[in-house]
Amino acid sequence: GRDTTYSASLRQPFYLSTVCELEITHALVGPLEVLGRGRHESLGYAATTFANARTDQVGFVGGGLAVRMSSNARVGFNVDQTIRWSTEGDAFGYTRRRFYTTATYGF
Predict the structure, then answer these.
(1) Could you report the per-residue pLDDT of 2-41, keeping only the tens digit for each?
(2) How far apart are CA 76 and CA 20, in angstroms?
């Protein structure tokens, strides 16, 4: 999808975000499920009086295991890694790895 989003930068107050993502959940055995996720985002910053145009890229991969507690509830453990890089150099980039649990309940 595409969307215009506000930026944290005062020099470039917004960017055009273009995203492609995929998430797959597969039942393994009994209540156990495996999850896989991937996402690529392109952040297009327009030139302003204060800054040159630039394009940042964000790559994301993740996965996890979940246990379905009932038809309405699931508990999971996930690992994600995000990498951001920019045409303006390392000052705008980062690498982040997260480990976290989720609890989902549907009504």
Answers:
(1) 999 999 888 999 999 999 999 999 999 999 999 999 999 9
(2) 24
